[in-house]
Design brief:
120 residues, mainly alpha, single chain
Length: 120
């Protein structure tokens, strides 16, 4: 969870304030800002992947969906506006998302939840 917080922490202040909430001006170099955010996110994703692969389980920590998986998926969804290809940014992320979203409990939740103001 700490890795998600550290790796994706700039998205609200550096992207959402100008791109969603219109409370800040667009930066002079939006492409550079988005590229920097993506690189930081990839660093975190690579670390999470290395931990998950060492464990050898179906999900990040175990063979069943746990808090770490929910946290990671929510972080990926939240990051979609800043990093449009985040759900398939690496083969490992793509596989994780497919496994997570194929769970019947997750499918039901996603189908029943209200849409947020940021479109996720």
């Amino acid at each position: 969870m700490e890795t998600c917080l550290d790796s994706f922490a700039d998205i609200p202040t550096k992207v959402y304030l100008w791109k969603v909430f219109k409370r800040a001006p667009e930066p002079e170099n939006p492409e550079e800002v988005l590229a920097e955010i993506k690189q930081k996110a990839l660093k975190g994703i690579n670390y999470i992947q290395s931990v998950a692969e060492k464990r050898g389980k179906k999900f990040v920590v175990g063979d069943e969906i746990g808090l770490a998986d929910v946290w990671l998926y929510c972080t990926l969804e939240f990051s979609h506006l800043a990093i449009p290809d985040i759900m398939e940014v690496t083969p490992w992320v793509k596989e994780f998302v497919e496994k997570f979203t194929s769970d019947e409990r997750v499918k039901k939740y996603v189908a029943d939840r209200p849409e947020s103001i940021i479109g996720i």
